[in-house]
Amino acid sequence: MEDGSGQSQEILEELKGWWWGVSKEMLDRSNPSRRETVSAEELRTKIDYVMSKYAQTSLPISDRLERLTEEEVARYKDRVFVAQLQLLKLGRRSIRFHLGEYHHAWTHRSRWLHRHYVAQSELDQFESDLRREWEQVFSKLADAFDAGEYGDDAVKAGVDILDKAMAAVETLRLRPQVEKRWVARGTLHALADLATQDDEPVGWHPDFENLLSQSSDTADGEE
Prior knowledge:
Elements: H1 4-27, H2 40-52, H3 70-75, H4 80-86, H5 92-114, H6 120-146, H7 154-169, H8 181-192, H9 208-222
Helix pairs in contact: 5-8, 6-7, 6-8
């Protein structure tokens, strides 16, 4: 855990940012419905809320997640977890949604590690829990596909695996008060991003390992 002075500075910066927004609203005379005062109760509530985000049972999480820019989306176009989504023939909007969950989860994770809010061992355990939930879903539905329950529609089976795996993990929490469901879902995408190098790969399409391998071989042959 980061030292107290470092946390105090971050708490102060977040409160200053909130106060700047409130002050700007109060001074906006072009807005007839602008707020005119800030009560002591509101200020106290805000301070308590911000401080609670830095408790050991929680982790600091951005209250607002910005929509990814086109540049950020393009940055991920060659990533393995995106290729995994493309195997399922998902549309542009769906892929962009999953991209956002990965991006925000990974950004927060990197910050937590850098600031020493979490240890790598704690994240490793969280990922192990996520992997276990994925494995239960994948083994059941991949077996169902092999048994002919999906006919020859492997894409439909893969979409079901994706949806059910995300539903299975979204209630898992890294910390008791980390309640944002995209943390687990985005982290599961991070595991799927390691599919071509992991001994126990995570994926959605029933034949994702072979398909990703073929895609990698094709890309290498074109270079």
